[in-house]
Amino acid sequence: MDEYRHPDPPDRKPNPGMLLRAMEDFPIDRERSLMIGDKPSDLEAAERAGVRAVLFEEANLRDFLNKEGLLP
Question: Is there a cis peptide before residue 7, judged by omega within 30 degrees of 0?
Answer without folding.
Answer: no
